[in-house]
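Moderator note: this is an archived Q&A kept for reference. The question asked for a predicted structure of one protein chain; the sequence and the answer are reproduced below.
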Amino acid sequence: MNKYKFVPLLCLLVLDSKSIYAGDKNNFNLSLEKLSRISLDSPATLTSLSEKDIPSSITTISHQQIQETSARSLDELLEFHVPGYQRHAQAFNTYQVSNRGFVGNGQFLLLVNGKRMSEHSQHSSIMERDLTALGDIDEIKVIRGSAAAIYGHGALNMVISIKTMNSRTFEGTKMKFSAGVTEEFLNGELSFGYKWKADQGVYLFAGLTDYQGAKLENSPVFFGVSGTKFQGRAISATNTTGYAISNDYQNAGDKLAIKLHGQLDIGDFSVWARYTRGGKRFATRIDSYEQLNSSITQQYEVAYEQATINLDYKKFFNKHWMTDFSVGYDMTEGLRRQGSTFLNDSFDETYREDQILAKLLIRNEQFEHQSFAMGAEFSYERFGLEPFRVSDAPVRYASFFLRFSEIDQGKRIEPWSAITVSGLFEHQWKVTDSVSFLTNLRIDARDHIELMYSPRFGVTYDLGSNDTFNFIISRSNKIPDAPLIRKQTIQGGDEFTPTTNDTVELKWNRNWERNISTLFSIYGQQREFTDWNSTKLQETQIGIARQWGLEFELSYHGEKLDISLSHQFNKLIDLKLNDPDTISIVSSQPNGFGDDLNILHNNISKLNIRYQFTRQLSGLITYVRYWGSPGSAGFHDFTNDRFAGGNSNNPSVRAIDNIDPYAFSESADYLQASINWNILKNTKIGIHGNYLLGFIDDNYNKRGFSHNGYYRTHAPAFNFQLSHKF
């Protein structure tokens, strides 16, 4: 336990500091209630800081935007509104997310009211994202880029921070119903808020969704390439596969998706509880269907359940000192069911993990030019537990399947635990009226993992009301899933060395006029890359990747018209492999094919236009363009070349006659439109269209879901909403 000795040392150093800052002088005149509402709830810093000085690019989505959008899930909402946010269907898993060149649900964190909801067993940040019931969400803030200095390992390139409604932000009773046509679903929500004193009240929310999705005839799957398979069967790029694949975005197990949330506020105390159940069926690689019995072609799905309870205590002792303490417990169960390519049968991968998480933060804002915050976290996690509800199958992990029996001789997996102790520190120094520094350091000590350091240093140069420049340097860490750590521990291996990502970013924010602003960011990253090792049947570190990117945002806010435009460009510089003979599914660039990352779209553009026609009537148009995936095309060329000699066990195409341009290089274009009408004072209706360009050509709505060119087209569809507040 020697690695934990840094915690008292860190606290001693912080307590000895004489550098304390009050932030904005105007804060001195605020009441304690108003003081508690300033940037303490910013997910990117521990101390209060004006928005333009925060050393991160942040997207904020308000409750009104959430209610007016055509999005049928949190994933769709973020894809529509967050610059650079990309959503990918996967061949052996549910939807994955990418941003700034990082692909995968383990590359970012999902928070609810500041509490980490991501798990460490297998699927990481899959909770919440597929749910249609969004009425309990007050606001979403998305940090684009590393936030490990605040949240520790896993916050490599993004943090999604959800803030829920409570008795202070919602009073009354509200009912909402929505239904989808073509992509079929029924959704019902009930919200209730009651406040019996100014600082005391209760908030309750319930949401149920029956999501059948779009039928295969409306959302077909295509091969993407033409040629002859090793088995000798000819396939055509533009023909549908013909297999009995599940509906697009259909609920796992045909079960209702559920979200329940309740919060009690009593002065400085608040306690909230949350339960979610969700998951989706997905279409896997077509070659997997060819090797399976037709009776199990519907058995590809990922499901989860999560129950959480959390207690928060915030105390402002005066205008300068405050403390924030929280302690919570959550239980997460997961299931991945798929037809096996190893066995002529289907199998379930199941798991359950329990976590107790406690956090203490102390903040001081006293002197004019400096402030600091310090804190500590303690996490106790229990793995290998039998799930209660998601499945009656024995515990199995993807990273353990067919390997755990070698370790335990076929015996039941015995539960195990892990402890993480963390220290946090932040110091803010306003050197002059124009220049300020922000320094962060987080240290995480976790069982069987080398000590993790996550520093961040930011410099802000403020030229007044028009221009602000931020320069940020940071490091983030990533550790393997808990089963992989356990496997190495059982086998007597050394402590894991976490992989790191180093980022340098320069950001420029300019206010051109009262209602026009732009943000321009350029960043470079060097990260230690992990990839699937087919020999060890697990992810291992394969080398170091360098990449760079650009982000641009433009916002216009008028009396009736609001416009937001964004574009992100990301480019792989090189991927240097530890072993030159390594074959990586992440990129074929080291093997001489293509020059970028597989799956990733180098360019992505987003446009949102909202117009207020009358006080009662508004309209919203959202357009998203994925500009092609050249890395995927290179990977396919490499795969075809590698197996050109023939391999009966490999499903790749032996001879390519034609590549469907929509499979790799051409763009995907998603267009949504909404009309929202307040027909009465407290009654609203919404008419929403999704993926409308599909009425012109299905290929506008394509989304690739494998490394080999297969893709699915989303069905153009409508959904209708009716809500009333009593």
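Archived answer notes: The mean pLDDT is 82.
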